[in-house]
Amino acid sequence: MNTRMIARSLRPLARTTTPVIRMGSVRAMSGSHAHENESFESFSARYEQFFGQVQDLFELQRGLNNCFAGSHAHENESFESFSARYEQFFGQVQDLFELQRGLNNCFAYDLVPSPGVVEAALRAARRVNDYSTAVRIFEGIKEKVENKGQYEAYLNELKGIREELGISTKEELYSS
Fold first, then answer.
1. Which parts of the chain are coiled coil (predicted)?
2. pLDDT higher for 51 or 26?
3. C-alpha dihedral, 128 to 96 to 94 to 140, nearest 10°
């Protein structure tokens, strides 16, 4: 393959992006050109439109970053609305993927889900007929709580639903 063929193969086939805003180019010149003795004021006046467009681009980028990166709908959500939202979500779950996705999202927050949310998740695990996920819900609670006493309190609070659905904890399954 000769250099002409390599250069041709590296050339893009089509333009892939379209610029949002077209701006004139600013060239830095040195030496004896017409603008070498130009004052800052005249330079600023000459390129004011260009710098305004650059500033507009920065503001647009900042707005897009705020839109996509940090402004989530649930940022300032109260614990009660969080619990209600996930109880409703787990009440509507119809397949294992949805259940596991919801559990991952729910347990990703910096709080322990309420017993109502856990009960709804356990009922959803029963509805999709996945016993292992039900056991893992209790493992997730054990990891999220601060101490063993809180975990025992959750187990006592959820004892009725555990007996109703026949769900054992990992400790009960592997105690020999």
1. none
2. 51
3. 80
Per DSSP, helices labelled H in 77-168 are 79-92, 96-108, 115-127, 131-144, 148-157, 159-165
Counts for the chain of helices (H) and strands (E), in that order:
10, 0
The mean of the pLDDT values for the chain is: 79
Fold (CATH) for 79-173: 1.25.40
- Backbone dihedral angles phi then psi of residue 14, each to the nearest 5 degrees: -150, 160
pTM reported for the whole predicted model: 0.58
Q: Angle 148-157/115-127 helices, nearest 10 degrees?
A: 60
Domain ranges of the chain: 79-173
Collapsing DSSP to helix, strand or coil, 65 comes out as helix
Q: Select from 108, 109, 130, 106 the least CA-distant residue to 118.
A: 106
Q: Which two tokens stand for residue 176?
A: 């020999």
